[in-house]
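hey
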């Protein structure tokens, strides 16, 4: 039977689910943890710190330029206009020095290998002819030649190395006064090799670390160290809890395996009992089948007699049905005639109703058309009336404003006339008084003159 429970193999449990269950709160507090590790300041305020970062950025930029010099030399036709004559000449000289330097480095090992192999071959051939004395003298001569060659090569390498350093400084100085060339060369950074990109990435990472350390105060460093220590302690405690839970899990799995084995034993016992019951049930089924066959034969004999009686009853009922059908056929014909007559009358009434409703519908449509036309005329008249009413209101308002304006002008004219009359009256009285004063003064002066003459 396939329903026997096989003991389950112990799965290999990793710490990832348990750590996820233990570290649920830490994931929820992850932004707070990152905020603790980040410095409070976002910008460098000290001049020394800014200078350090500027030096690192300048070093990264110069390193990128120096790494792209071979590419620039290969594509000098494209960069010759941007670089200029002097910078172009310096780059070509620098690349030539670099090739010389690489050429001196490459054959250094191969020359030593060739010397040692030649010395060994000559030593072997001479040993067969002249003996061990000649062998030792030849080996010493070759070692002296190799040492002299290595010293000369080392001196050449030192000289070329100094020239390369001087050429590098000149190239960087010329790049510093030509920003356009710097931009054009740095735009080709996609051709850098993996090692060069790794070096520049390391320098960039160093700059970021320096910026982070410069932004952080001593108090923040202390708090960060304390926070990291607390995280470490918490992780250690979580590891202990995980070990304990894994031990409990192993015990639970052992208990489960024992329970499975017990259930398998119980299932085997039940299968044995089932096999015994199946044997007993087969014998019982055979006996039951024999009894059922006997009862079937007896029921068959009884059913044949019942079948004859029922057939006689069916024949009698058929005869009764034929008699009743003959009796009710006449009444059915009368009812059918009545039904046809009623249906004819109903159809006539329906046709009359349809004709009447058609006339009424036509009349309704005519009335509705007249109503629609009159309603459209009414709307048109109402629109005209609204327009005329607005114009009438506007004209009446203009007339009212004109009347008020005219009345105002008349009042102002009347007031102006009255004011002019008053002013003229005052002016006449003033002129009269002035003339009277002048006459009075003239008479006084004439009398005084006459008295003087006398």
């Amino acid at each position: 039977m396939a329903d026997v429970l096989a003991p389950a193999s112990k799965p290999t449990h990793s710490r990832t689910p348990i750590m996820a269950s233990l570290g649920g709160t830490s994931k929820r507090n992850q932004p707070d943890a990152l905020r603790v590790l980040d410095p409070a300041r976002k910008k460098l305020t000290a001049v020394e710190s800014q200078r350090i970062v500027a030096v690192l950025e300048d070093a990264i930029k110069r390193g990128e330029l120096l790494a792209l010099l071979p590419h620039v030399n290969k594509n000098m036709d494209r960069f010759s206009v941007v670089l200029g004559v002097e910078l172009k000449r310096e780059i070509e000289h620098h690349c030539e020095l670099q090739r010389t330097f690489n050429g001196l480095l490459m054959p250094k090992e191969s020359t030593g290998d060739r010397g040692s192999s030649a010395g060994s071959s000559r030593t072997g051939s001479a040993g067969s002819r002249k003996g061990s004395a000649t062998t030792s003298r030849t080996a010493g001569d070759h070692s002296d030649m190799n040492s002299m060659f290595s010293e000369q090569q080392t001196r050449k390498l030192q000289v070329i190395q100094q020239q390369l350093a001087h050429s590098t400084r000149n190239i960087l100085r010329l790049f510093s006064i030509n920003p356009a060339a710097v931009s054009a060369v740095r735009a080709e950074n996609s051709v850098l090799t993996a090692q060069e990109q790794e070096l520049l990435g390391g320098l960039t990472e160093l700059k970021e670390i320096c910026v982070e350390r410069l932004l952080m105060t001593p108090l923040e460093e202390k708090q960060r160290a304390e926070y990291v220590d607390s995280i470490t302690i918490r992780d250690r405690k979580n590891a202990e809890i995980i070990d304990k839970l894994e031990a409990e899990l192993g015990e639970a799995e052992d208990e489960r395996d024992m329970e499975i084995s017990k259930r398998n034993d119980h299932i085997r016992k039940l299968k044995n009992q089932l096999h015994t019951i199946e044997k007993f049930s087969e014998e019982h089924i055979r006996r039951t089948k024999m009894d059922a066959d006997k009862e079937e034969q007896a029921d068959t004999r009884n059913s044949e007699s019942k079948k004859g009686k029922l057939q006689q009853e069916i024949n009698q009922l058929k005869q009764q049905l034929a008699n009743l059908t003959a009796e009710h056929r006449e009444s059915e014909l009368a009812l059918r005639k009545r039904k046809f007559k009623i249906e004819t009358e109903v159809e006539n009434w329906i046709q009359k109703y349809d004709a009447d409703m058609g006339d009424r519908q036509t009349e309704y449509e005519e009335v509705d058309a007249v109503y629609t036309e009159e309603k459209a005329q009414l709307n048109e008249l109402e629109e005209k009336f609204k327009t005329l009413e607005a114009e009438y209101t506007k004209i009446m308002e203009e007339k009212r404003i004109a009347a008020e304006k005219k009345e105002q002008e008349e009042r102002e004219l009347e007031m102006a006339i009255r004011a002019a009359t008053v002013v003229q009256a005052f002016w006449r009285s003033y002129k009269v008084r002035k003339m009277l004063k002048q006459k009075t003064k003239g008479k006084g002066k004439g009398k005084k003159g006459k008295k003087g003459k006398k």
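Residues 29-126+135-217 form one domain. Confidence is low (pLDDT under 50) at residues 1-31, 111-139.
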